[in-house]
Amino acid sequence: MSAGRLAQAGLVALCALPALLSVGRLWLGVADPADYLTRQSGWWALTWLIATLTVSPLAVLLHAPRLIAFRRTLGLTAFAYASAHLSVYVAQVAPTPSVLLDDLVGSPYIVAGFAAWLMLLPLAVTSSKYWMKRLGRSWARLHRLVYPALMLGCLHYLWLTKSDYREPALLTAIATLLLAWRIWRWQRRHRAGSVT
């Protein structure tokens, strides 16, 4: 197995580890399994999404373009955890559709979270090289949806937090820095293009 494939396999194992640990914790017993799964899957979805957007800055700063190869795995992992997060929530409210409707109307954090998941869905579907070739330049434009999805995910976390805001605030600050870096890079390239 090549070094690249070995690194990818290691990353996949790392990405699966939180899910395996959550299953183990459930097996040992928790007071509220649904609440535990909802919180764990949501936190990891946002964390893996931030990790996905950290790849490009690291590749530039470390002069290691090969790191970009890990971005797809991280992005799909974020979507998988976000889907698990949504599935656990839907499983809880599905028996009472009126509750789901009330949540969508009266709970902005539910709307923000669902909107973030909807934005990630086409990115997961079109993440392969096949879709990259088929969509051409439109592929890059489509995948910019990851930026509003990230901010909506942070907003979702901030809104549902009741007391201790330190963790959601930290993740939001990191996400903001990552987006600021991208804006700075875009402005720098734009200015360089204007000069030439």
List the helices and strands in order.
HHHHHHHHH
Low-confidence stretches: none
Count of helical regions: 9
Strand content: under 5%
Q: Tell me the radius of gyration.
A: 18 Å
Straight-line distance between termini? 45 Å
Tell me the number of structural domains.
Answer: 1
Structural class: mainly alpha
Mean residue pLDDT: 90
Strand count, sense and barrel status of the largest sheet are:
none
**Multimerization state:** single chain
Approximate helicity band: over 70%
Count the E strands. 0
Shape: globular
Keyphrases for this structure?
196 residues
Q: What's the short version?
A:
This protein has 196 residues and is an all-alpha fold.
List the helices and strands and how they pair.
Elements: H1 3-28, H2 33-61, H3 71-93, H4 97-106, H5 108-125, H6 129-135, H7 137-142, H8 146-160, H9 166-195
Helix pairs in contact: 1-2, 1-3, 2-3, 2-8, 2-9, 3-5, 5-8, 8-9
Cofactor: heme b; FMN
Keywords: Cell membrane, Electron transport, Flavoprotein, FMN, Heme, Iron, Membrane, Metal-binding, Transmembrane, Transmembrane helix, Transport
InterPro entries: Fe3_Rdtase_TM_dom, MsrQ-like
Structural commentary:
Belongs to the MsrQ family. It comes from Crenobacter caeni. Its cofactor is heme b; FMN. By secondary structure, the protein is an all-alpha fold. It has one domain. Helix content is 84%, strand content 0%. It has 9 helices and no strands. The radius of gyration is 18 Å and the shape is globular. The protein starts with a helix and ends with a helix.
